[in-house]
Write the structure tokens for this entry.
Amino acid sequence: MDMESGVNAIRYVGIAEAADKVSNADRILVIGCSGGGKSTLAQKIARRFKLTYISIDRDVLWLPGWVQRDKLEQHRLIVELAAGERWIMDGTNTSTFDIRVPRSDLVIWVRMPRWLCVWGILSRWITNRGRTRPEVAPGCPEKMEWQFLRFVWTWEKVYGPRVAAGLAAHAIGKPVLVLKSRREMRDLLDLIGAGA
């Protein structure tokens, strides 16, 4: 399948349709750049609909001290977690889209402007400096490094096309909601009754 036909096969949905899907979904995948608000969104939806919240950063990728888990172990954990019955999974890693996207009832792509993502990571660093956020593995206190800032600033250019290609390959017929502003995110949360 060529890229053009794959992109056309993705079923992009609006906020109202996505809100209806969220309320009836058993498995939701939330993807996007760091700092865009995907973890906060996923946790609010998890609480509202009593879905198991899975964070790729906390549950798969990192061990204490910001040590990355072995790739084979990461893969095993992804397969195990994706096999669950009711979850919302927060994390983008396109190399596991073949496992996670087909199991999802809905994909939410939080695609905020890069300046907003940089603001998001800077503000969470200031707020949580020295502490571990709930969506990160224990023993991984909040920190800020220049390479991470660069990663976030260039994410859309480098990883946006990979996400689009991964969705084109694995989300055919699946509803995909793209959220491009905080207002759109608030509108979704308001529609599903998880705005607070």
Q: What stands out?
A: The chain has nine helices and eight strands. Residues 146-170 form the longest helix (25 residues). The longest strand covers residues 27-32. The chain has one domain: 3-189.
